[in-house]
Sequence to fold (343 residues):
Amino acid sequence: MLEATPSDGVHLVTGTAGFIGFHLAERLLQEGRRVIGVDCVNDYYDPTLKEARLDRLGNHRGFVNYRIKLEDKDALAGVFDKHQPRVVVNLAAQAGVRYSLQNPQAYIDSNIVGFTNILEQARKHQIDHLVYASSSSVYGLNSTLPFSVGDTVDHPISLYAASKKSNELMAHTYSHLFGIPTTGLRFFTVYGPWGRPDMAMFLFARAILDGKPINVFNHGQMQRDFTYIADIIEGVTRIADRPARPDPNWSSANPHPGTSSAPYRLQNIGNNNPVELMYLIQVIEEKLGKKAEKIMLPMQPGDVPATYANVDPLIADAGFKPETSIEEGVSNFLDWFRWYYKV
Fold:
């Protein structure tokens, strides 16, 4: 296990108005740490939900938020220069597989140009650890389950996935050249209270309660490794306190994709328990006490039929394995949904 070295310095978290960034910032603030937030609060989905998250964070002492884009390198540099963060967790990104077919430029701007600016500030300030969001989408055409960080991921099937794979490659370069510890986190279908309205669970709940049909892609023949937000945050906080180190067993003759001779790591954070889409719908129906009207549709471009995370390296490095059941997680999400939307 990598030794934990909790940082008492400033944590800079990007994407604080977003789903995961909000929860991470709240957890760090509750632990008494200072959090500098960065989020441009774009309109990819309902900005009022993002504003509500920021309002909640604003109730904590020790929280400051800057409304800037990662692409604005001068503004970002000003935040780093002023606050001198020691740990950076980059969760800001243009999300969404399907949206990347409609607006590819948004992914280049935020996920490539923006991430380059983060790396440059990490280099300039020689931070203790850069943790950044990757995605299970990088596994692309891989069909060997469960997905492992030891797998090659050279065949992405969406620009979103390609941008996340690019982040991993860029981070490795900076770890190798400048000795910056970097850890990329491949998240698997995150859900829970304060979640994203463009995700299936949110869309299903809203449609069922409104008496509207739901779209069921690939005729329901899908599996996802749904991972509850509290498990994601536990994994992120543990990893953030354990800066990546060179792997002493790494060999250039037989290179392992998830580690390196540089201080570089990749981690899956998933529930290690894929759930069939039709079962998810059943759990939501039972909790709401209402049946869904289903429209069966084919697989959408950029989608994959199944995701399933191998989390053995996460257990070894962080001593943690996500374990929240889909039944418990869905119940918690729907309780929040009804409270927030006064349903």
Summary: The longest helix spans residues 104-125.
